[in-house]
Amino acid sequence: MTDYLLLKTIHILSSTLLFGTGLGTAFHGWMANRSGVLAARRVVNRNVELADWLFTTPAVVVQPVTGVWLAHLAGFPLTTPWLIAAIMLYILVGACWLPVVAIQMAMRRIAEATPNGTELPARYHRLARWWFALGWPAFTGVIVIFWLMVAKPEFAL
Question: What whole-number percentage of the chain has pLDDT above 70?
Fold first, then answer.
């Protein structure tokens, strides 16, 4: 396999890992919060945070490294409009994801500190709403990045 194809495979696998882990943890986090069951929230919050450290964080690092390297090998200048758009969206996605990581950690701490048989404080529910809201622009951005990578449209910025 050529260096380019190996690098492209790594790039595609890490993007799949990034999107899939994000979608999976978002679904489980949302469902646990909807359940109203404190024990479920504790387990899921802990696992969502762990999944971000084990899977999402490495993929977040691999994506720009392999992406820039692939662009170089393929002869696409980083000033190519669809690449600029993808990079800008990646920054937007990161700007949504970084606070989400902090929110997830806070939600886990609150759920673990809440005694059994008591209601979670309002702060937990407020954080959960922010966590959910920040997911929408992040997922939309990733979908558009996928399209840009596949279509490589010609347009001017």
Answer: 99
The label of the residue with tokens 């600029």 reads 84
CA angle 10, 15, 21 (to 5 degrees): 120
Predicted confidence (pLDDT) per residue in 72-93, tens digit: 999 999 999 999 999 999 999 9
Rounded to whole angstroms, the Cα distance separating 29 from 40 reads 9
- The C-alpha atoms of residue 61 and residue 14 are separated, in whole angstroms, by 9
The H-or-E segment that residue 87 falls in is helix 81-113
For residues 36 and 124, the answer to whether their CB atoms sit within 8 Å is no
Closest among 87, 16, 26, 89 to 52, alpha carbons compared: 26
Residue 139 belongs to a domain: yes
The parent domain of residue 100 ranges over 3-151
For the whole model, what pTM was predicted?
0.90
Q: For the chain, give me the number of helices (H) and strands (E)?
A: 5, 0
Length of the chain counted residue by residue = 157
What total of structural domains would you count in the chain? 1
Average pLDDT of the chain, as a whole number: 96
First to last CA, the chain: 35
Instruction: Identify whether 157 is part of a domain.
Output: no
Within-domain flag for 156: no
